[in-house]
């Protein structure tokens, strides 16, 4: 049985300028105990997808189509009361900013007691014991439970938030940019902690990030999003070694490779398109160094190029050559008008 199945999920924002198709037909599956990374720049729909998944969206956002089958229950159709019962107990989120989950005017312990008593049905004494267990689990001194959030370092706050997400033993954990605000050393420590907990607790994990290297360290599978759509997905090791979409190639070029320290970092010029008034054809075409006439008029379909590996590019037949050319700085400089 597939643990989580996303089918053609569409989430639109209703704005004064018109409809913004922030998530437009996202589909993927996730097995129990596995991890998947969702990658893309800011504005590609990652965080909107997460909010839609747990159904905590802004007032002008609507799920217009699709299914989110979580252990065969469609979360899109569940009454809000049932969704409240699922959040934290079965499905928990590690937010983008650790302070979002820690009340700055109360000791950190109070955040744990609130969740464990109100959502978990524990007595206060049991909640304190559970909070201590959770702090030990993520490598924090239990004495720090009496501290206020501002007395924690960035790495400590992130570990505390991970512990809070795991408070009620959820089946699925969503980490939304969990290491973005941390320095590289603390990032490594937090990611190592996540991997350890995943293995020890058998967690099923969705990791949202703009950093493709984080997925390489943490996840078995990867979904690459651009402008609300999936442009490539498959096993992380395979997609990162042999990307089949120019956007994935560009993301890989933009991050350092310790095995090739002299390799230049190459940026993708420009920004994601306006999703209220998107361009015709491939949404990446305006920034793509390999675009041709067809790319500006016809949207490519997400196609299985080999078992389990999908990509949406009109130039799939030439992809090996494009992959080689994508590693050259001059290739991407040609895009600049």
Summed up:
It is built from eleven helices and twelve strands.
Q: How do the helices and strands line up, and which of them pair or pack?
A:
Layout: E1 4-15, E2 18-30, E3 35-39, H1 46-54, E4 61-70, E5 73-74, H2 80-86, E6 91-94, H3 108-119, H4 124-137, H5 154-165, E7 172-176, H6 184-201, E8 204-209, H7 212-218, E9 221-226, E10 229-235, H8 236-241, H9 246-253, E11 303-306, E12 309-311, H10 319-325, H11 329-333
Parallel strand pairs: 3-8, 3-9, 6-7, 7-8
Antiparallel strand pairs: 1-2, 1-4, 4-5, 9-10, 10-12, 11-12
Helix pairs in contact: 3-4, 4-5, 5-6
Task: Considering the chains and any ligands shown, give keywords for the structure.
single chain; 337 residues; alpha/beta; eight-stranded mixed β-sheet; four-stranded antiparallel β-sheet; 11 helices; 12 strands; 23% strand
Mean pLDDT: 90
Please identify the structural class as seen in this structure. alpha/beta
Tally the helices: what do you get? Answer: 11
Note the main sheet.
Answer: 8 strands, mixed
Order of helical and strand elements? EEEHEEHEHHHEHEHEEHHEEHH
Share in β-strands: 15-25%
DSSP, total strands: 12
Low-confidence stretches: none
Radius of gyration (CA) equals 21 Å
What is the first-to-last residue Cα distance?
Answer: 50 Å
- Shape assignment: globular
Strand order of the largest sheet: 6-7-8-3-9-10-12-11
């Amino acid at each position: 049985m597939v643990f989580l199945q996303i089918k053609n999920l569409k989430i639109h924002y209703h704005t004064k300028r018109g409809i913004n198709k922030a998530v437009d037909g996202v589909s993927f599956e996730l097995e129990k105990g596995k991890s998947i990374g969702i990658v893309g720049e800011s504005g590609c729909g990652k965080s909107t997808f997460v909010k839609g998944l747990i159904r905590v969206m802004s007032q002008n956002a609507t799920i217009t189509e699709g299914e989110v089958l979580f252990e065969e229950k469609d979360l899109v159709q569940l009454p809000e009361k049932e969704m409240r019962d699922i959040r934290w107990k079965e499905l928990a989120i590690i937010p983008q900013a650790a302070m979002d989950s820690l009340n700055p005017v109360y000791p950190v312990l109070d955040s744990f007691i609130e969740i464990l008593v109100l959502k978990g049905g524990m007595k206060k004494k049991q909640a304190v014991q559970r909070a201590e267990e959770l702090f030990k689990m993520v490598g924090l001194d239990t004495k720090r439970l009496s501290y206020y959030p501002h007395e924690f370092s960035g790495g400590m706050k992130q570990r505390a938030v991970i512990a809070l997400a795991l408070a009620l033993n959820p089946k699925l954990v969503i980490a939304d940019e969990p290491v973005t605000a941390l320095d590289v050393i603390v990032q490594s420590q937090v990611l190592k902690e996540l991997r350890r907990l995943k293995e020890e607790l058998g967690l099923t994990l969705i990791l949202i990030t703009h950093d493709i290297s984080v997925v390489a360290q943490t996840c078995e599978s990867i979904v690459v999003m651009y402008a609300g759509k999936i442009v490539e997905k498959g096993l992380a090791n395979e997609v990162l070694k042999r990307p089949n979409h120019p956007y994935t190639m560009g993301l890989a070029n933009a991050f350092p490779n310790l095995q090739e320290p002299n390799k230049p970092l190459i940026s993708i010029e420009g920004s994601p398109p306006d999703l209220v008034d998107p361009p015709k054809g491939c949404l990446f075409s305006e920034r793509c160094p390999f675009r041709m006439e067809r790319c500006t008029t016809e949207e490519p379909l997400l196609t299985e190029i080999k078992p389990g590996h999908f990509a949406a590019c009109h130039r799939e037949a030439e992809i090996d050559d494009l992959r080689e050319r994508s590693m050259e700085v001059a290739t991407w400089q040609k895009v600049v008008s």
